[in-house]
Amino acid sequence: NRVRSYQDNQQQRSVKGFSMEKTKTSDLPKSPPTNSDLPVEVNPETTRENEKAFLQETLPQLDVEDKDGSGSDLKASSKHGKEGFFPVLKNRNFLALWGGQIFCQLADKVYLVLMIALINSEFQQRGQSISGWVSALMMIFTIPAVLFGSVAGVFVDRWSKKAVLVASNIWRGALVMSIPFLIWLTHDWYPIGALPVGFLMILLVTFLVSTFTQFFAPAEQATIPLVVEEQYLLSANSLYTTTMMASVFIGFAVGEPVLVLADSLWAKYGGHGGLGKEILVGGSYGIAGIILILI
User: Rg of the chain's alpha carbons, rounded to an integer?
Assistant: First the structure.
């Protein structure tokens, strides 16, 4: 009984305390409404006057920015688009790079045609299909792209771009010019398996030429932003891509007639051994290297 009476007293005290706190809170005076609680009336005339004042202050600042050149990006881009390739072609360094690209790209595309012509004239037997020889050649030409394509750019970033451009073309030209000598040197050697040693020399030269190409390509692409201003990069890259695609068409479409013409001119002016083809392709690499020295 004592425990129950004690619990009842405690419950009554808690109920009285809650009711007193509620009464005190409700008796507090309410704060008067502030300006933020009042409805705002918008005057249209005042709004228009404020807009006019803002425009009068802002327009002179925009004119000043335009005079400084900071607000004229759109006008400049439109102007460069109308000028086309002319600003890029006035750049002496880019002209040297582009001239080297023309000779180098043509030599790259005609090189495979030259190798097929050599296989046809030196190693293919009568009645034998040339597809096996060409397949081996194309496989060797592709392997350096797989092995060195991803790592060549790392080394090119550390080396001088101009040195890579010049050296890769000079070495490719020298390798192509050495093909007739290598074939003559190994013409009486015993074949290795079923393959003549001269054909293996062609495969070796093709592997080395393709390897140097893997270093030349990233160096050429990285040089364009170094010699061309930023606003002309689009025109420079467009001209670079157009030249590359045109060289593919010219190299594979008229490569064989050009090689035949080179041999006939070589023979006409007293040359022997049909070296006109190799001189044409190797000389194109050499000319590209000499032009790139001018950068």
Answer: 40
Q: Spell out the residues 6+ positions from residue 236 whose beta carbon is closer than 8 angstroms to its own.
A: 88, 94, 224, 228
Q: What are the CA-CA distances from residue 187 to residues 110, 125, 182 (Å)? A: 24, 15, 8
Is the full-model pTM beyond 0.85?
no
| β-bridge partners, 242 | none
Least confident interval from 29-43, 60-74, 97-111, 251-265: 60-74
Cβ count within 10 A of residue 80: 17
Please say whether the beta carbons of 225 and 167 come within 8 A: no
- The residues pairing with 285 across neighbouring beta strands, listed in sequence order, are none
CB contact set of 217 (below 8 Å; sequence gap of 6+) = 152
Determine the Cα–Cα distance for residues 247 and 263; give it in Å rounded to an integer. 21
- pLDDT score of 62 more than 80: no
**3-class secondary structure, 55:** helix
Higher local confidence (pLDDT), 271 or 217: 217
Q: Name every residue whose Cβ is closer than 8 Å to that of residue 180 and which is 6 or more positions away in sequence.
A: 273, 275, 278
- Asked if 100 and 282 count as a contact pair (C-beta separation under 8 A), the reply is no
Residue closest to 101 by CA, chosen among 279, 277, 252, 241: 241
Contact between 244 and 105 (Cβ < 8 Å): yes
CA within 13 Å, CB half, 77: 8
Please list, residue by residue across 92-127, b when 16 or more beta carbons sit within 10 angstroms of its beta carbon and e when fewer do.
eebbbbbbbbbbbbbbbbbbbbbbbbbbeeebbeee
Query: Do the beta carbons of residue 282 and residue 176 sit within 8 Å?
Result: yes
